[in-house]
Structure formats: C-alpha cells, structure tokens
Amino acid sequence: MKLFKFLIIFMFIMSIAVFTIGCNKEEKTKIENQGETETLYEVKESTTTVSNASETEMIRLTLYFPDKEAMYLLAEERDVAKTKAPAEAAIEELIKGPKEERHIAVIPVRTELNGINIEDETAYVDFNEEFKTNYRLGSAAETMTVYSIVNTLTEFSTIKKVKFLVNGESFEIEGSNFDFKIQEFSRNEDLIKEN
Questions:
Q1: Distances from the Cα of 185 to the Cαs of 76, 109, 146, in angstroms?
Q2: What would the pLDDT profile of 113-128 be if each residue is shown by its tens digit?
Q3: Cα–Cα–Cα angle for 41, 44, 50, rounded to 5 degrees
C-alpha cells in the first residue's frame, strides 16, 4: 500500500515537472521567435539604408598619380558623392593616395587642403604649412607632385592654370626647381601615359 501511494505521488510530481518543462520550452521558443523577428527587422532597416546610400548621386573624377619610376603620370578614376566643390573633392582624393598598386602617393605627408578658389580659369590651391615643410626636392619628385595636382585640376573645363598657396599666401621653397611665388602652372600632357 505504501508503495502504491509512493508511485502515485512520484507520477504526480513527474507529470508536473514535464508540464513545467514543456511550458518553459514553449516560452523560450516564443522569445527566440521574437528575437528572429527583431533581427529580420534590423536587417530590413540596414538594407533600406544601403539602398538609400546607393541612390546618392555620384560623380567620376580623374586623378593623376606617378608611376613607380616617377617618370609618368597615370590616370586613376574615382567615384565620389556629388558635391558643389568637385575640384576640392579631387584634391582631397589625391591626398588620400592611390588605390591602384602601380601608382604612388605624391602629396607631401600631413598636407591638408584649406580650399580652392577659381578666378578667371585659374585655380588658387591653398594648402596648409605641411605642403611646404614636407615638400620633396629633386626634379622628378617635384615634377610629379606639381603636375599630379595641376593635371588633376585641369580635368575640369573651368580650370586652365593652377597657382599654389600655403595658408592663403604665395611662398618659396629654397632649392626648388619651381618658383611658387610667381609661377602659375598649365596642364602638361607630355607627362601623361596611357594605362
């Protein structure tokens, strides 16, 4: 008799335990399903963001970087978000450096663009002091630096010449082959090599 009572109590406890575990599992499934719903919603939101970003109007810029021998300038096309100041965007991209392996960076390190002012088809390109301080001397290095900038800017129909400034002022670089104080630079097609 005692054994019979013990079995009934044991079965009762077991059925409660099974029922409780089943309920917990069902709640857990609901929570996991809610998590999946939230995740799907987040993915959907980010997809929308991506599609909105892809709708941003882009412009294509042609930049010029030296080849590894510093003998020629090679064109590199780059797509950037449309801007009211595409000439400034082009110089900012030059400062970032090339993306193609056979092109080399040419803008002096830590150079920043203060701005570009275009008057009578001349672009006055204003750099910070680092352009002058870190400028590399030597015929090839100077030619590549200057004409990388000049040929990039003269891709724009509104620019025929380029004048360099540092912090809004004309400047000189001792030992340079160029006279930045007075010189305005025109495009040099002879330096461009077809890719």
A1: 21, 22, 8
A2: 999 999 999 999 999 9
A3: 145
Residue 124 one-letter amino acid: Y
- For 171, the token pair is 């400047």
Q: Are 195 and 74 in contact (CB under 8 A)?
A: yes
Structure tokens at 54: 């892809």
DSSP of 102-149: TB---SPTT--EEEEEEETTEEEEEE-HHHHHTPPPSHHHHHHHHHHH
For the chain, give me the number of helices (H) and strands (E)?
Answer: 4, 7
Task: Give 169's DSSP letter.
Answer: B
**This prediction's pTM:** 0.72
**Rounded Cα distance, 175 and 19, in Å:** 90
Contact 66, 72 (CB under 8 A): yes
Closest by alpha carbon to 105, among 78, 70, 77? 70
pLDDT in tens, 154-172: 999 999 999 999 999 999 9
> N- to C-terminal Cα distance for the chain?
99
Q: Does residue 81 sit in helix, strand or coil?
A: strand
| E strand or H helix that includes residue 165 | strand 161-166
